[in-house]
Write a structure and sequence with these properties.
Shape: globular
Number of helices: 15
Structural class: alpha/beta
Distance between the termini: 32 Å
Radius of gyration: 22 Å
Helix content: 25-40%
CATH superfamily of the largest domain: tm_1862 like domain
Bound molecules: S-adenosyl-L-homocysteine, iron/sulfur cluster, FE3-S4 cluster
Strand content: 15-25%
Largest sheet: 7 strands, mixed
CATH architecture of the largest domain: Alpha-Beta Horseshoe
Length: 475
C-alpha cells in the first residue's frame, strides 16, 4: 500500500480496499432452505446484511458459503460510485450461470442500487427476482413468497421511522471480538456529489436504550469492541416516545462507554460540521472510547467545499482538527477525499494536498469524482475534469498521504500500546493481530494464555508497509 510510486493499479486498489464484497456464513450444515449473501459498500451495508440474515433465519433459512447450494442468492449493493455499480453487475453475470444450472434459485438485489434503480433493475437485469430497498427488509419473506409464485417481488419504500431497533443482528462471518451497531439510518445532508440521501432516505436515530442493550448483549457474549455506525453519527438525536428524555451523540457515547470499561467503543462517520467539543471531551473522559476519528474532508478548498455543499470551510475544518489534537494529543484522524470534483483547479487541488499535511491523517480513503445521476452536482455542474486529470490528482493525493502515514507510523516506533487481540495475523499462525486505540493494526508474536478478545500491551519495534510490528511487554 505504501510503495513509492503509485500506479493507476495502486489507485484502483486503494479505491477498492474499503468496498470489498464478502460472503457471510452461518450454520452451514443445517437442513432446510439456504441463502447466500454478498455485501458491497460501506459498513452500514454489512450491518444491514446481518439484519437480513436474522430475518431469514427466523423463516427457517440457514446460510451457505457455496452459491450453488443456495435457494436464494442475495447481493447487498452500493451506488456510491459508478464502479461500485459496475462491480455488482459483473457479479450478477456470475449468478446467472448458477441460475441456469439451478433454475429454482431466486436472485435478490438489496441495498442502495436496488433503491436507486427500483423496477428499472428488473428491466436491465432479467435474472433478478427480488428488488428490495434498505428500509424494506422486514418484507423480504413476503417478497420471497411472491417470487416463488413466479412473480417479481419489489419493495423500495423508504421509511421515516424504520431503524430495525428490535431485530437482533446475526453476527455472520464474525471474529467474535468486534461488531457493528447501527445507531441511525439515512442522511439529511445533501452533499451535492452524494447519492446516499436518495438511496437511504431521511435521517432517523435509533432508540438509545436498544443501542445500549445491544452493546451489553455483545459484551456478555464475549465481544470487546463495538463500532457505532451512521452516515453522520454526530447528528444522532433521539427523543423518548413520551418526550421526557433527549439523547445526543455525546450522551449516547457515554452510555455505551459505561457498559463496561473492557468494551471498546469506536464510531463512524463524523461530519466535520457536527462534531462538537462535547463529543471530544466525552472521548477524552473514557479510556475505552478509542482515540480515533474518521473525519472526511472531501476537499481542502473552501470554494469546492461550497460547491459540494459540505457546509464548512477549510478554516472551519482546520479549527476542528486543532481542537481534536488540543483535547486529545494522541488521537488519530483519517479522512475521505475526492479528487477532480466539478471545476476544481490545480491550485484548489493543491489545497487538498496541503490539508493532508496539516491534518496529519493516519490514513485517507481516496476517490476520484464519479458523477451520480440525479444528484445536485449532476443537475447543476458539469463533470468537466478529464478522467486522466482526476486520476493523476488522485495519485498525487495518495502519494502525499503515503508519506504522511509513514511519518505517523514512524512516531509509533518504540511506543507501547494497549492492543485488543482480534485473531491470528494473516501471514502467520505464530502471530496475533490487533489494533491500538488509534485504529492501527499491530502484529506481534503470540504468548501462551492470551487469545482473541484479550487486551495486551505491545511495544512497537518495526514497521512494514502499513503494519506495525511489535512484542508483548508489560507496563
Ligand atoms: N457519510 C459519510 C460518507 C459516506 S460515502 C460522510 O459524509 O463523510 C463514503 C465516501 O465516498 C464519501 O466520504 C466520499 O468521499 C465518497 N463519495 C461519495 N460520493 C462520491 C462520488 N460521487 N464520487 C466519488 N466519491 C464519492
Ligand atoms: Fe453523503 Fe454527505 Fe450524507 Fe455523507 S453526509 S452520506 S457524503 S450526503
Ligand atoms: Fe454505498 Fe449505500 Fe453505503 S451507496 S457507501 S452502500 S449507504
Amino acid at each position: 500500500m505504501y510503495n513509492q510510486n503509485p500506479t493507476l493499479e495502486d489507485v484502483d486498489k486503494n479505491i477498492d480496499e474499503k468496498r470489498q464484497g464478502e460472503a457471510l456464513v452461518l450454520n452451514e450444515n443445517q437442513g432446510g432452505k439456504k441463502f447466500y449473501i454478498e455485501s458491497y459498500g460501506c459498513a452500514m451495508n454489512f450491518s444491514d446484511s446481518e439484519i437480513v440474515a436474522s430475518i431469514l433465519s427466523k423463516e427457517g433459512y440457514s446460510s451457505t458459503r457455496v452459491m450453488e447450494h443456495s435457494d436464494l442468492i442475495l447481493i447487498n449493493t452500493c451506488s456510491i460510485r459508478e464502479k461500485a455499480e459496475y462491480n455488482v453487475r459483473q457479479r450478477l453475470r456470475e449468478f446467472d450461470k448458477v441460475k441456469k444450472k439451478n433454475p429454482g434459485t431466486l436472485v435478490g438485489v438489496m441495498g442502495c442500487m436496488a433503491e436507486r434503480l427500483k423496477t428499472k433493475l428488473l428491466e436491465q437485469e432479467k435474472l433478478v427476482d427480488i428488488v428490495i430497498g434498505p428500509d424494506a427488509y422486514r418484507d423480504l419473506p413476503g417478497l420471497i413468497a411472491t417470487a416463488e409464485d413466479g412473480n417479481k417481488g419489489v419493495n423500495v419504500y423508504l421509511s421515516r421511522e424504520e431503524t430495525y431497533a428490535d431485530i437482533s443482528p446475526l453476527r455472520l462471518g464474525s471474529n467474535g471480538v468486534t461488531a457493528f451497531i447501527s445507531i441511525m439510518r439515512g442522511c439529511d445532508n445533501m452533499c451535492s456529489f452524494c447519492v446516499v440521501p436518495y438511496t437511504r432516505g431521511r435521517e432517523r436515530s435509533r432508540d438509545a436504550y436498544s443501542i445500549v442493550a445491544e452493546a451489553a448483549d455483545l459484551y456478555d457474549r464475549g465481544f470487546r469492541e463495538v463500532t457505532l455506525l451512521g452516515q453522520n453519527v454526530d447528528s444522532y438525536k433521539w427523543e423518548s416516545p413520551d418526550q421526557s428524555e433527549n439523547v445526543n451523540f455525546a450522551q449516547l457515547l457515554e452510555r455505551v462507554a459505561l457498559v463496561s470499561p473492557e468494551l471498546r467503543i469506536r464510531f463512524s462517520t463524523s461530519h466535520p460540521k457536527d462534531i462538537t467539543d462535547d463529543v471530544l471531551h466525552t472521548m477524552k473522559a473514557h479510556e475505552n472510547i478509542c482515540k480515533y476519528i474518521h473525519l472526511p474532508v472531501q476537499s481542502g478548498n473552501s470554494r469546492i467545499l461550497e460547491l459540494m455543499n459540505r457546509t464548512y470551510t477549510r478554516e472551519w475544518y482546520m479549527e476542528r482538527v486543532n481542537k481534536i489534537y488540543e483535547i486529545m494529543p494522541d488521537c488519530a484522524i483519517s479522512a475521505d477525499i475526492i479528487t477532480g470534483f466539478c471545476s476544481e483547479t490545480e491550485e484548489e487541488h493543491q489545497d487538498t494536498l496541503s490539508m493532508i499535511e496539516f491534518a496529519k491523517y493516519s490514513y485517507s480513503y481516496t476517490f476520484s469524482y464519479s458523477e451520480r445521476p440525479g444528484t445536485p452536482a449532476a443537475k447543476k455542474f458539469e463533470d468537466d475534469i478529464p478522467l486522466d486529470v482526476k486520476k493523476r490528482r488522485l495519485a498525487e493525493v495518495i502519494k502525499v498521504q503515503r508519506d504522511v502515514s509513514a511519518k505517523h507510523n514512524q512516531k509509533d516506533l518504540g511506543k507501547t500500546f494497549k492492543v485488543l487481540i482480534e485473531g491470528n495475523s494473516k501471514k502467520s499462525e505464530l502471530h496475533f493481530k490487533g489494533r491500538n486505540s488509534q485504529n492501527k493494526m499491530i502484529v506481534f508474536p503470540k504468548q501462551e494464555g492470551l487469545g482473541p478478545g484479550d487486551y495486551t500491551y505491545v511495544k512497537v519495534n518495526d514497521i512494514t508497509s502499513a503494519t506495525l510490528i511489535g512484542e508483548i511487554t508489560t507496563v
